[in-house]
């Protein structure tokens, strides 16, 4: 294991920022994953920063900060980026958005200066065509909402998805994710969505605007976290506490390191850093 760790994290030595996923890595279904708090403490003690990057646009920043606190991690607002923030960055301040999503996405749009209306609001229909329909994670989605937003897209609104994750890990198993909702809107409207979150460029841009040097990306899903690491040109550490339950040759992209959880990754990185000095 030590030799593997040194090889896997050869490019992630001291002082960079670790980009760490949340769902399936720090918590699962809102329940903290054991050792996550200790892992972040180790990475910070080794001289690294940690930036939490989540494809889940549903929680507000304060809700995420509180969940991190419960997991034993102190974090500020500037240490978190979300797919909702990436989606908001794609719109001009002063623009109009029709939203399928929860408070976190509405917060991100408001911070950008975008005038956002929830598609669940009965007053959402009948007015001018919005600049964009923005789709994020929510449990408040039904046929009427689908019809309303599909009409807006057909009338000329851009279709923006916060992410295209088909499922979301929870303590009771896998739940339908944003990608399932986005697919319904795309099918009903006939439009091809532009996606903001991992592994796409809008969220990658938010990350590079926040940090100067990235040590590695840590996540539970190669198709998002791994591809993000590839886009950023940094190592990818896969954890087996979320979507991906086992490592195998079929994973694409192949991770540079596989750990059973975030603590295993942090311990391996610490050993690699010590061995390289």
| CATH H-level superfamily title of the largest domain | HAD superfamily/HAD-like
Q: What is the CATH T-level topology of the largest domain?
A: Rossmann fold
CATH architecture group name of the largest domain: 3-Layer(aba) Sandwich
Uncertain parts: none
Instruction: Return the CATH class of the largest domain.
Output: Alpha Beta
- Global shape: elongated
Biggest sheet strand order reads 5-4-1-13-14-15
Q: What is the straight-line distance between the termini?
A: 18 Å
What is the radius of gyration computed over CA atoms, rounded to a whole number of angstroms? 19 Å
Q: How much of the polypeptide forms β-strand, as a percent range?
A: 15-25%
Q: What number of domains?
A: 2
The number of E-state strands comes to: 15
Helix-residue proportion: 25-40%
Structural class designation: alpha/beta
Question: What does the main sheet amount to?
Answer: 6 strands, parallel
Order of helices and strands: HEEEHEHEHEHEEHEEEHEHEHEEH
Q: Overall pLDDT, averaged?
A: 91
Q: Note the total helix count.
A: 10
């Amino acid at each position: 294991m030590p030799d593997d760790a040194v090889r896997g994290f050869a490019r992630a030595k001291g002082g960079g920022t670790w980009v760490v996923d949340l769902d399936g890595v720090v918590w699962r279904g809102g329940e903290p994953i054991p050792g996550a708090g200790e892992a972040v403490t180790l990475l910070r003690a080794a001289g690294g920063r940690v930036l939490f990057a989540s494809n889940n646009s549903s929680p507000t920043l304060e809700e995420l900060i509180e969940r991190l606190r419960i997991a034993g991690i102190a974090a500020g607002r500037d240490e978190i980026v979300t797919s909702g923030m990436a989606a908001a960055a794609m719109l001009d301040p002063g623009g109009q958005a029709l939203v399928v999503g929860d408070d976190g996405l509405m917060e991100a749009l408001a911070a950008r200066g975008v005038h956002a209306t929830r598609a669940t609001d009965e007053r959402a229909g009948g007015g001018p065509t919005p600049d964009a329909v923005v789709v994020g994670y929510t449990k408040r989605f039904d046929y009427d909402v689908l019809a309303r937003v599909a009409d807006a897209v057909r009338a000329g609104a851009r279709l923006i998805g916060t992410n295209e994750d088909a499922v979301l890990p929870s303590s009771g198993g896998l739940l339908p994710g944003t990608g399932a909702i986005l697919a319904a809107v795309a099918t009903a409207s006939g439009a091809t969505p532009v996606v903001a979150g991992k592994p796409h460029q809008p969220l990658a841009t938010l990350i590079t605007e926040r940090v100067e040097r990235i040590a590695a990306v840590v996540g539970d899903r190669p198709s998002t976290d791994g591809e993000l690491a590839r886009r950023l040109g940094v190592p990818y550490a896969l954890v087996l506490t979320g979507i991906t339950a086992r490592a195998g040759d079929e994973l694409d992209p192949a991770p540079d390191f596989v750990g059973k959880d975030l603590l295993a990754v942090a311990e391996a990185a610490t050993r690699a850093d010590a061995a390289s000095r």
